[in-house]
Amino acid sequence: MSVRSTARSVRAMLRIGFLDAIAYRGETIVWMLSTTMPLVMFLLWSAAADGKPIGRYGAGELHAYFLAAFVVRQLGGSWAAWQINMEVRDGTLGMRLLRPVNPIVHYAIEQAAHVPVRAFFSMPVAFVFFALDPLIHAPKEPLLLVLFPISVLGAWALSFLMNVIVGALAFFIEQSVKLMDVYTALFFVFSGYMVPLDLFPEPVRVVLDYLPFRYQMGLSVELLTGALSPAVALRLVAQQWVMVALVTLVAHLVFRRGVRHFEAYGG
Amino acid sequence: MISVESLGKTFRVQKRPPGLLAGVKALFRREYTMVEAARDVSFRIEDGERVGFLGPNGAGKTTTLKMLAGLLQPSAGRASVGGLEPFRRSEAFLASITLVLGQKQQLVWDLPPQETFELNRAIYGVSAADFRKTTAELVELLEIGEQIKRPTRQLSLGERMKCELACALIHRPKYLFLDEPTIGLDVNMQETIRTFIRGYNEQYGATLMLTSHYMADVTALCPRIILIDKGSIAFDGELSELMSKGRTDKRVRFSLSREVTAAELRAVGNLVEHGAAEATFEVQKEAVSALVAHALQVLPVRDLSVTDPPLEEIMRGWFAKEPAAEPV
């Protein structure tokens, strides 16, 4: 597919995705509710701490961490694996393949169009928590605030691309969403979504630097809560985007190979 | 032109007997069988032709159409549509074709069809002026002015099918692959869609390949028929040739001025159908005049007509000759 044909249709695809997200406003709200786990974790960790700090996390740090996790999850989440799995299984992917647009780009734009809708509902909630909680403070280092949106974009891209890779496995196996369930469980534990990553032992943290989970969540949370020095933040954001590039390549290869296997709806 | 040479497609299908035990066994050891959905399929279709692509269920019709539309990669042989290889799915190729699958849709379920029309306009790079003109024509011909403004999920099957057809033609494709485009529609709606497809073909010189289980679609639209059976071409020729090929029988239909009992009718000849004041007989070609003469003597005949057997019956006869397809 040419870049030109894809570029000229981006606006129309965004529009359709946005209108679709609005049409599914009930589902959007339910999805948001399903991503309030950080707020639940905040309550659990606060109870576990019982007024004493856990690692470097006192009450204020816990408040800030899980509020940031909530924000990043709203902005950086994707569920393309379920959509791709369904379209491969019921054959509607064929209708997408008939259009002269790269299907991964098409999925990406459709998914991205849902982000503003989620932000519209969730950001006021986050802002109210931020304004009313005296223990939460904005980070003082401007570079971290500059890097934050870049890292959220990277987090979204990684989430989306991992979804594409796992979703595209539906070309080869019967139910790739089961694998996505496994991946999501690992994400919950190792991304910083439920447990701040610096509470893990050092060897685990070293391994996590080479896996996508931290870059899908923890890095952006650490930036927003001012937990990183500027030098470390720059290095990690650079690592995140290297990972985005690698995963883009893998997603493209898996999807392209999968399309060659596409025999979902028989003769 | 559509050119197909020795095209074949083999699917690897899991073989699993029914039952719990077989299900558990399949967890550890799976058996597969290879099924040839299309085998050595060859034909050429000139630009502007309307061709009916017929065969029993599982004959390989849809598989072949999907290979021609670039959705399936052939296991053997070559195909070319307008000089382009389908499975490369180049932009020029995708812009020149459309595939309408009666049971699959491209319209966005929760949005009005006009939103998907607009999406296709952008994707295919149709100019605003051409889009307005084409949409106006399609809306008028298909009578969907109101329907394109309602969410797709609120449309009836027939309304949705008409909108699907319009959506598939926004970019004015030269090659139309239509797979059961009238499935589930009532007679009037089928007729509307047939008229529309014929009009599109004549107006734009588009090439049409149609599969349908409704023989009325085929007889109304397709001067040429390609029959496929067990993955291979069984007949390729004019519809009239198919109607007469291998058949030496005719149908003689009488309109009667009063009701006649079935027993009386059976005494006249081989009765295949009868109603309150009509009767249809099957008879060999050379015996038509004898049957007519006899019927005129013994039945209250008001009118009569002599025709070929209906296409459905010809097809049934054709495909009953051979046993069903077997895995290879």
Strand content of chain A: under 5%
Report the principal-axis shape of chain B.
globular
The Rg value of chain A, from CA coordinates, equals: 19 Å
Helical content of chain A, roughly?
A: over 70%
* Beta strand count of chain A: 0
Q: Order of strands across the widest beta sheet of chain B?
A: 5-6-7-3-8-9
Distance between the termini of chain B: 32 Å
Per DSSP, the total helix count of chain A is 14
The helix count of chain B comes to 12
| Rounded mean pLDDT score of chain A | 87
Q: Give the overall shape of chain A, derived from the CA principal axes.
A: globular
Kindly report the oligomeric state of this protein: heterodimer
What order do the helices and strands of chain A follow? Answer: HHHHHHHHHHHHHH
Helices and strands, with pairings:
The complex is a heterodimer of chains A (267) and B (328).
Chain A (H helix, E strand, L loop, with lengths): L2 H21 L1 H10 L2 H13 L9 H18 L3 H11 L2 H5 L5 H10 L2 H18 L9 H27 L7 H15 L11 H7 L4 H4 L1 H7 L5 H31 L7
Helix pairs in contact in A: 1-7, 2-8, 3-4, 4-8, 4-13, 5-9, 9-10, 9-13, 9-14
Chain B lengths: L1 E14 L4 H9 L2 E15 L4 E5 L6 H8 L7 E6 L9 H6 E5 L11 H12 L3 H15 L14 H12 L6 E5 L7 H18 L2 E5 L3 H7 L2 E6 L2 E7 H6 L4 E8 L5 H5 L3 E6 L2 E7 L3 H11 L2 E7 L3 H9 L9
Parallel strand pairs in B: 3-7, 3-8, 5-6, 6-7
Antiparallel strand pairs in B: 1-2, 1-4, 8-9, 10-12, 10-13, 11-12
What's this entry about, in short?
The complex is a heterodimer of chains A (267) and B (328). Chain A has 267 residues and is mostly helical.
